[in-house]
């Protein structure tokens, strides 16, 4: 019996964690090791060798970060990608880079930067449900500043909510960034149609990574849900599988 402990950020938004990478690892473990791991809720990032949750403990061994945890589990024989060819595995690495970059930034923006979502949903979640005020304040200040810094290139103005609401998130003030993403997404969609990963017959590590990020777009009841509505209307496959 494998004794694995996964330490993750606390639940929220009707999901088992408020963090996309924690959700992704939970998804992967549920697929590859159901019943062989325990979930430990924590906000102690120091448990992780990388200084950030999620963190996996296997007896006396600690592993941190999505990539390290997945690689470790694969070495232990828990490999969701073992049926893929070497070329397909290389493709997954390329697609993961898109999620780690622009996909992660969209998640951060939606939860921590967008003024309506932050003020009405995210901040009350932290203050009222999980942490003492001082801890919540410091944690949110750090996370929001980090998110704002990462998404500066979006060039989104938060001063015209009515204008924002009348446009797709990929249109208002994203300029070249949104165009590049839509073009890239269209190209990748054509390639993925013939691949066995991303909502294929068997879930892969890439499916888990996508789930962790998109779940935080689909399930929270945000007042500014433009991104979620856009994805639901343009990507019915995502809506069906999530």
UniProtKB/TrEMBL annotation:
Pfam families: GST_C_6, Tom37. It is found in: Mitochondrion outer membrane. One of its GO terms (cellular component) is SAM complex. The keyword Transmembrane helix does not apply. The lineage of its organism: Eukaryota, Fungi, Dikarya, Ascomycota, Taphrinomycotina. Residues 191-237 form the Metaxin glutathione S-transferase domain. Residues 22-140 form the Mitochondrial outer membrane transport complex Sam37/metaxin N-terminal domain. This is Mitochondrial outer membrane transport complex Sam37/metaxin N-terminal domain-containing protein. Keywords: Membrane, Mitochondrion, Mitochondrion outer membrane, Protein transport, Transport. CDD domains: GST_N_Metaxin1_like. InterPro entries: Metaxin_GST (IPR033468), Mito_Protein_Transport_Metaxin (IPR050931), Sam37/metaxin_N (IPR019564). Its main location: mitochondrion. GO terms for biological process: mitochondrion organization; protein transport. The keyword Mitochondrion applies.
């Amino acid at each position: 019996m494998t004794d694995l402990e996964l330490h993750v950020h606390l639940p929220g938004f009707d999901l088992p964690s408020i963090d996309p990478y924690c959700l992704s690892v939970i998804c992967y473990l549920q697929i590859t090791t159901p019943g062989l791991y325990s979930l430990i809720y924590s906000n102690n990032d120091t448990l992780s060798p990388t200084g950030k949750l999620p963190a996996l403990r296997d007896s006396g061994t600690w592993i941190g970060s999505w990539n390290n945890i997945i690689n470790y589990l694969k070495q232990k024989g828990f490999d969701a990608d073992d049926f893929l060819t070497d070329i397909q595995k290389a493709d997954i690495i390329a697609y993961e880079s898109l999620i780690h970059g622009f996909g992660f930034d969209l998640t951060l923006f939606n939860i921590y930067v967008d003024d309506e979502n932050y003020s009405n949903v995210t901040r009350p979640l932290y203050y009222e449900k999980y942490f003492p005020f001082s801890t919540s304040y410091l944690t949110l200040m750090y996370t929001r500043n980090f998110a704002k810094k990462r998404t500066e290139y979006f060039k989104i103005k938060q001063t015209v909510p009515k204008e924002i609401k009348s446009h797709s998130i990929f249109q208002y003030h994203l300029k070249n960034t949104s165009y590049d993403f839509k073009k890239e997404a269209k190209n990748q969609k054509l390639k993925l149609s013939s691949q066995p990963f991303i909502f294929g017959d068997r879930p892969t590590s890439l499916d888990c990574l996508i789930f962790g990020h998109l779940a935080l777009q689909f399930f929270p009841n945000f007042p500014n849900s433009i991104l979620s509505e856009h994805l639901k209307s343009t990507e019915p496959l995502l809506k069906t599988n999530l």
